[in-house]
Amino acid sequence: MYDAEFQLTPGEPSAPAFKPSHAGHRDRLRERAAAGDLDALPDYEMLELMLFRAIPQRDVKPLARALIARFKSLAGVLGAYPADLKTVTARDNSGKLLRVTDAVALDLKLVHQAACRMGRVRAATALQEDAARERLSISSWSALNDYVRTRLAHEAREQVRVLFLDRKNQLIADELMNRGTVDHAAVYPREVVRRALELSASALILVHNHPSGDPTPSRADVDITRQIVEAAKAMGIAVHDHLVVGRDGVASLKALGLM
Predict the structure, then answer these.
(1) Which residues of the chain have pLDDT under 50?
(2) CA triplet 104, 110, 115: central angle to 5 degrees?
């Protein structure tokens, strides 16, 4: 269970200093990361590095593996709700219980939020670069797809978000309109339009996720999109698209000819 690492100490030239075996593992993993080897690390080792800070002096590999097994990927772990994260436990090599504490859950959500904010900045920058042309380009859609996938692809429950844009297609706000169950979240056309008017938005992009992983739009998705398009049109507000996000990708109702 322990590896002996011998260190010379004053007055005791042969006294062994014992370190737990996982201490050496932590050092080696940190060295690999510091050497710029992050891209080569599997998901569970990336997660270990994150857990080191909140769970000191413990072997966190079993907990990292348990989290990946439960949520399928590092992205799935970071996108999970804190209450769900805290249901995951594991035992280290000494048999002691490891669990996701409030501090661990907060650390993981901070990483996820940082990734979302970085994606939002990239998306907003791409939209601003298109502002002079007053249209959305391929670069904008690529940045938007990356952003919405980071935010929603691994959500356990359905969310409806709206990206509100000004007359130059610059992002004013990304707002959560509703959060629902594993397969449904209601959205009301009047609420979307009301909020657009409050923000003085000239256009919007609808976004919601399918927790099943399949981004294929449903009949209900198509129907509500058309209702929102009509309600927004009456107020002079354009609906550029409705993006459906899943682990398998992002579907555009506009590209599919469904709006």
Answers:
(1) 1-18, 132, 138
(2) 135
